[in-house]
Design goal:
Elements (H helix, E strand, L loop, with lengths): L2 E5 L2 E4 L4 E8 L8 E6 L5 E8 L4 E4 L7 E6 L4 E6 L8 E7 L10 E2 L3 E6 L1
Parallel strand pairs: 2-11
Antiparallel strand pairs: 1-3, 3-8, 4-5, 4-9, 5-6, 7-8, 9-10, 9-11
Amino acid sequence: EKQLVESGGGLVQAGGSLRLSCVTSGFSLDRYDVGWFRQAPGKGREGLVCTARSFNTAYYADSVKGRFTISSDNAKNTVYLQMNSLKPEDTAVYYCAADCGLYTDYWPYRGQGTQVTVSS
């Protein structure tokens, strides 16, 4: 069973940074694309980033490109999302996902989410 557990959310001022972590189990990071999406109150799901292992790259949504960076430590089975230059509109619950597809809005395996709140 694939499991993902996010942490690292919290309250930060606009312009600040946070690093989210996602500890995974039940699958190998070498075999699945992983990514992050978010959902703000009253809004739909927004895909942020998904890796493309076969191309050794990652695809980012325009809203976070240049500010957010995905990385992983396969030895620790952990995926990270470094978030810089945070804006109030980044406030949302952030979810880690496996076997994702950014452009297909495909996030079949996900964690429980971690709240990020950015104050102005």
